[in-house]
Amino acid sequence: FTGTTPGEGDMLVIDEGGTLEFQAVAMDADGDTPVFGLDGLAQLKGANFDAATGEFSWTTDYTHVGEYDVALNVTDNKSDPIERNLRITVNRLDTDGDNLSDTFEEEIGTDPTKKDTDGDTISDRDEIDIVNCFSRSEDKRSEFQSTFQVGRSSATLEELLADDRVTCGDDHVA
Predict the structure, then answer these.
(1) Distance between CA atoms of residues 104 and 93, nearest Å
(2) Tell me, what DSSP letter sits at residue 122?
(3) How many Cβ atoms are within 10 Å of 24's Cβ, its own excluded?
(4) 36 near 74, Cβ under 8 Å?
């Protein structure tokens, strides 16, 4: 390996929503064409790696947050491959501090810079939790709708949490 190729044990760090790119470069002493590989590529959902050019590109989102160990290798198809172990870390971003990652908020249409996108005093995260809870079954969806039909349409989250009629399964929403 030469040039801009990541080194053995390098940690490549990117924030969710960003694109990680690098190009592996190698030269063979007798002029053979190098062939690159990336063991562990399958775990990097949506990543692209070109074995002929050594080009790697991966645009990340909230589903990719975590650490990934991969092995970059090169061979001339005549000798054993040379390998470099790398760790790729995708960091979670939560700009507004509502415990929803930024790229998830972009996907669902909430504002990643506002804790309460619609200004109703219920944080985006709490609204997501309530909707997820009551959309699990038709019974719960009906219970949720009837709660709001009983004059609670302007209820704050605190009022909803204090209302024993607002439950998810056997558990109170809180």
Answers:
(1) 10
(2) S
(3) 25
(4) yes
As a whole number of angstroms, the distance between CA 86 and CA 37 comes to: 13
Nearest to 82, CA basis, from 29, 118, 132:
29
pLDDT digits (tens, 9 = 90+) for 64-117: 999 999 999 999 988 889 999 999 999 999 999 998 999 988 988 889 999 999
Looking at 6-163, list the stretches that DSSP marks H as alpha helix, in order from N- to C-terminal side: 102-108, 124-134, 138-147, 157-162
CA angle at 171 for the pair 132 and 131, rounded to the nearest 5°: 15
Could you report the per-residue pLDDT of 119-174, keeping only the tens digit for each? Answer: 888 888 888 777 666 555 445 444 444 333 333 334 554 555 555 554 554 444 44
C-alpha torsion angle, residues 130, 131, 136, 138 (rounded to 10): 110
What's the pTM?
Answer: 0.73
